Amino acid sequence: MYALRTAANVSRVAGVASARIVSAVSDTRTPYTGTTRLLIMPANHAMLTSMLAARRAYSSAHGDESYEEFNRRYTAAFESVPDLFELQRNLDNCFAYDLVPSAETITAALHACRRVNDFPTAVRIFDALKEKTNEQQYKEYMAILEPVKEQLGVPTSQELGL
């Protein structure tokens, strides 16, 4: 009785409308600690093939984009963020790639932080930049971004002593 209830629950959870138990193997060392393993097969062949053929279809909306296209896309995204959530979502997506955004994209992100009035995210942009680059690249980025830092009054976490 327990095995049948388990099979019904498993078939409901697995999304199989009708299933049949092909085999039930019972391991009964003691009457109360035994385990039953069930092999559940779909009732018809079409259901089996649909279960096996199901796979995730990934979107290829962006395909192979160049570094310039990547920077244009995220610069435009940062220039039009309406709120903090969209800013942080775009930053997360931008820094998730295996490349470092250009200084223009970072500048747009810093201006977006000012627009949505979020100082901590602006500081974290410099932290993310430091994590994505080596020491020499970070110094080059900081030299390029120094006027923007001064204009917006955004220090790095090292300058804050964090």
Automatic annotation (TrEMBL):
<dbReference type="Pfam" id="PF02284">
    <property type="entry name" value="COX5A"/>
</dbReference>
<dbReference type="GO" id="GO:0045277">
    <property type="term" value="C:respiratory chain complex IV"/>
</dbReference>
<dbReference type="InterPro" id="IPR036545">
    <property type="entry name" value="Cyt_c_oxidase_su5A/6_sf"/>
</dbReference>
<keyword id="KW-0496">Mitochondrion</keyword>
<dbReference type="GO" id="GO:0006123">
    <property type="term" value="P:mitochondrial electron transport, cytochrome c to oxygen"/>
</dbReference>
<keyword id="KW-0349">Heme</keyword>
<comment type="similarity">
    <text>Belongs to the cytochrome c oxidase subunit 5A family.</text>
</comment>
<keyword id="KW-0408">Iron</keyword>
<keyword id="KW-0809">Transit peptide</keyword>
<keyword id="KW-0999">Mitochondrion inner membrane</keyword>
<keyword id="KW-0472">Membrane</keyword>
<dbReference type="GO" id="GO:0005743">
    <property type="term" value="C:mitochondrial inner membrane"/>
</dbReference>
<keyword id="KW-0479">Metal-binding</keyword>
<dbReference type="GO" id="GO:0046872">
    <property type="term" value="F:metal ion binding"/>
</dbReference>
<comment type="pathway">
    <text>Energy metabolism; oxidative phosphorylation.</text>
</comment>
<comment type="subunit">
    <text>Component of the cytochrome c oxidase (complex IV, CIV), a multisubunit enzyme composed of a catalytic core of 3 subunits and several supernumerary subunits.</text>
</comment>
<protein>
    <recommendedName>
        <fullName>Cytochrome c oxidase subunit 6, mitochondrial</fullName>
    </recommendedName>
</protein>
<comment type="function">
    <text>Component of the cytochrome c oxidase, the last enzyme in the mitochondrial electron transport chain which drives oxidative phosphorylation. The respiratory chain contains 3 multisubunit complexes succinate dehydrogenase (complex II, CII), ubiquinol-cytochrome c oxidoreductase (cytochrome b-c1 complex, complex III, CIII) and cytochrome c oxidase (complex IV, CIV), that cooperate to transfer electrons derived from NADH and succinate to molecular oxygen, creating an electrochemical gradient over the inner membrane that drives transmembrane transport and the ATP synthase.</text>
</comment>
<dbReference type="InterPro" id="IPR003204">
    <property type="entry name" value="Cyt_c_oxidase_su5A/6"/>
</dbReference>
